[in-house]
């Protein structure tokens, strides 16, 4: 049965599906989700989780990698065959190659166990905001936050009304990150979107261009808050709620 601690409102509460076989972990996630006012459904197996995903069409799915009846990455890929619902994967594995495998399978983000409730809530909020924007944001609606404005139609960037010059390659990288805001993109995913596989090492190219972009769009490039590094995996655009 679902549960929710949110009060009635004009808009329905987000529905979060948790597919996790450990009761103690489910309890932690339940408390975190309910404190945000969301409705939660729970499944202890991949089979039940897939059934609930189809029948309840959740706003967000939290998926454990080590399920008793199926590998979480396979479950993720299965869901991606018919749904674009954001998926946050939980894993006790710290291997970076494993994290890349999950993202390539269709996961939007991941958290390594053990994780803090604050970190979990922040990641879930980011994915729910992204889901609320719809699968594709209207190109005529500029992204605006903290004085920074990114207009996908005019292909312009400005800070506090002052134009920021970006090269064509920097623009493509920025556009890719912004339109997938809240989602962790692997080095290879970003590389393929902006360049081609024939150019060489993805991490080396990205490191240079991300550093250049940060100098232009971050208030403090040394302590970036917009273009966030996921060590050994890739980058994530962390955007606050648009102005």
UniProtKB/TrEMBL annotation:
Record keywords, A-Z: DNA-binding, Phosphoprotein
Classification of source organism: Bacteria, Pseudomonadati, Gemmatimonadota, Gemmatimonadia, Gemmatimonadales
Domain OmpR/PhoB-type residue range list: 140-239
Organism (species): Gemmatimonas groenlandica
Pfam families reported for this sequence: Response_reg, Trans_reg_C
UniProt name for this protein: Response regulator transcription factor
One GO cellular component term: protein-DNA complex
Signal peptide limits: none
BP-aspect Gene Ontology terms: regulation of DNA-templated transcription
Domain of life: Bacteria
DNA-binding region extent: 140-239
Residues modified to 4-aspartylphosphate: 64
SUPFAM superfamilies: CheY-like
Keyword DNA-binding assigned: yes
Location of the Response regulatory domain: 15-128
GO terms of molecular function: phosphorelay response regulator activity; transcription cis-regulatory region binding
UniProt keyword annotation of Ribosomal protein present: no
